[in-house]
Structure formats: structure tokens, C-alpha cells
Amino acid sequence: MFRNLSPTVRNLIFINIAVYVLGGFLPQDLLSLHYFQAKDFHVYQVVSYMFVHASFMHLLGNMFGLYMFGSLLERIWGAQRFLFFYFFCGIGAGLLYMGIQHFIDFADFRRATEIVLSDPSSMHLYDYAQHYQVIALPDGNVNLDWARENYAEYVNRSQLAGASGAIFGILMAFGYLFPNSEMYLFPFPIPIKAKYFVSGYGLYEMYQGIQQYQGDNVAHFAHIGGMVFAVILLMVWKTKRNQFY
């Protein structure tokens, strides 16, 4: 199996497996991507998060996607361009995910915290505490320090991990370059063209991201981010799709 892999793809798979196996000895919380306002955020996390996986199935799914589609792209582009594409999509996915967090997920909480810190009389601290309680209230002591710490604790809990953004970028590139290639999706015996599969998968991720059901801890907008940044880079490179079928 590994003999059919291109060198860069093989190395990426080995590194991801090694990081997962050594997970107990590595600072996973400091390698995953935190929200940029969190106390545990570090700039290097926009890269390191791509090598951290929450479970074996998470790792297996991403490495399977890299195995299926990555080597073909590396053979077309060469190692240097493929590696740039991989990290461009992965970093872009993380940045888009943080943007969604900033402008949508954390927006109301952040505005309420800013209001109560700037003018406590404008929003009763106890009402604020009850509405946005995410850590235990201090005994009878609801104050500005608590509001500040509460927000910091809340945003620090958000972490993004996994190579999914980069893998979805690779999937998008495959559908873009090989739109009429036929794929079989288990357990369905009917082939589907890559362009329809990739488009459908992207719409599904968009729908799931908008709905974001309770208990769903999948970063759907990171997946979308990988696909978006893949398209951007492919357009910059002015790749001619009719050369690849």
C-alpha cells in the first residue's frame, strides 16, 4: 500500500500517525488551535493543529482521504507545490473557522462582556452571570473580575484539531482537476462523477455547519474553509481543468 504513495504524502501520513501515537507525551492542548483571544492561543497552532487528532477514527478518516487523493496531486504538481497547497488549505481552514467563531459563535457573548466591563450599570451583573454562566459562580460574589474570567474560560475551551481542512482542500482539487472521474461510494453500486460528489459534500458540510446540532463537535466550517482556500489557490495558479480527466 505505502509503496504506491508519493514521498510527501507518505511523510505526512507517518507524521500524523506518530503525533497520534505519542499523544500521551505531547501537549495536545497547546498543539490544537485555540481561538485567537484565548489565553492558550499561540501563532504556531495554525500549523500544529493539523497534526493533532481527537480519536483513532478521526485520524483514520483524514489519512484515508490523504491516501486516496494526495499522491495523484503530488505527482501532477510536484512535492513543493503540493506541500504548499496542503498547508495553504489547512491554515486557511483554521483562519476561516476562527473568523466564524469571532463574528458568529462568540459575538453575542463578547458584546455582552464588553458592555458589562465598560459600564456595569448598563447590564446587571447578576443577570449577565445567570445568562452566560459557563463556569461556577463565586459564592455570593458576582463582579467584574468574574465576568472577565468567565469569558476567557469560555473561549479557551474552543479547540480545533485535525487535518480535515487540508484534506477537504485536496478533495476539492481532485474534483476541480478531474471532474468527470467516476467514484464509488460504499455501499452504493452506482458510480458518481467527482464534480457531483465534491459539490454535494460541500453543500452537506455547509448545511451541517449552519444547523450545528447540539452535541455535534465537528468543525464543518473548517471543512468548508479548506475547500474555499483550495479554489482560491487553484484560481491563482490558473489551473486548466480540461487537461485532466
From TrEMBL:
Enzyme Commission number(s): 3.4.21.-
Key words, A-Z: Hydrolase, Membrane, Protease, Transmembrane, Transmembrane helix
Residue ranges constituting the Peptidase S54 rhomboid domain according to the UniProt record: 42-100, 159-235
Locations listed in the record: Membrane
Domain of life: Bacteria
Membrane topology: Multi-pass membrane protein
Database matches in Gene3D superfamilies: Rhomboid-like (1.20.1540.10)
Top EC class for this record: hydrolase
GO biological process, one term: proteolysis
GO molecular-function term, one example from the UniProt record: peptidase activity
Residue ranges crossing the lipid bilayer per the database entry: 12-36, 48-70, 82-100, 160-178, 218-237
Matches recorded under Pfam families: Rhomboid
Family of this protein: Belongs to the peptidase S54 family.
Annotated protein name in UniProt: Rhomboid family intramembrane serine protease
Protein species of origin: Aquirufa regiilacus
UniProt lineage: Bacteria, Pseudomonadati, Bacteroidota, Cytophagia, Cytophagales
